[in-house]
Amino acid sequence: MPIEKPRVLLVEDEPTLAQGLADALRFQGYECDIASDGEQGLAMARRGSYDVMLLDLMLPILSGFEVMEALRGEGSRVPTIMLTAKGAEDDKVRGLELGADDYVTKPFAIRELMARVGAQLRRTRRERGDGETFEIDGVRFDLGRLTGFRGEEEIVLTPREGEILSYLRAHQGNVVTRDEFLLEVWKYPTASVETRTVDNTLAALRKKIETNPADPQIIKTVRGKGYRWGA
Predict the structure, then answer these.
(1) In which element (H, E) is residue 135 found?
(2) Residue 126 pLDDT > 80, yes or no?
């Protein structure tokens, strides 16, 4: 059964940045809700069950500091990554003291932000001890933590990659087509995305998890049809 998508709350008042970050998060396999001011962000954080919150500090109505202080005062432990201005060392210190878990400084690379979101997600899942675990071709996977181990080597997975592995394993014995991946994992209508998206993502995943990507044992190619689980 596919793993549940991690949920991210993005509290950011700059519309272009917020939409760009939300699109990047969704492409990586996260669900993402956007709040455009501190008051809305606080209300959504109270109502929703989020795995990670990205919190800008300079917000209308309520600042990020006020949102953080209110949530931690109420006992909320949602992992929170602050979005801070360059050089604002005092803001970083204050935010961490109020209970934030990490920060990134604007302008930041999307790759860095995704790495920090993934780290928070793995930490909380490690603490809960939940997740789908299995071993194949010498790799021990824990999809709840989005990790795998081949011996002592750690393999870090994105949420999208975790969903791909989970979906293939749940449908082992069957060929999963590219269109099926787009519909069931990407949640996109097949006409809206090139099928090369699937092939490129699978190729990158194989480089991570296969001993020999040229002769894959975990994710098999069925020529002209799609992919299947290797076991």
Answers:
(1) strand 133-136
(2) no
Q: Do 204 and 102 belong together in one domain?
A: no
**Last residue of some domain: 111, 127, 143?**
127
Boundary (domain end) residue, out of 127, 150, 181: 127
Residues 157 and 210 in one domain: yes
| Beta pairing class for 147-150 and 139-142 | antiparallel
Burial of 49 (0-12, 13-18, 19+ CB in 10 A): exposed
Residues 160 and 51 in one domain: no
Burial degree of 207 (CB within 10 A; 0-12, 13-18, 19+): exposed
The residues, any chain, with a CB within 8 Å of residue 36's CB and separated by 6 or more, are: 12, 13, 15, 18, 60
Taking a C-beta distance cutoff of 8 angstroms, is the pair 158, 146 a contact?
yes
pLDDT at 123: 78
Indicate whether 96 pLDDT > 70: yes
Q: Using an 8 Å Cβ cutoff, are 51 and 117 in contact? A: no
- On whether residue 55 sits in a domain, the answer given is yes
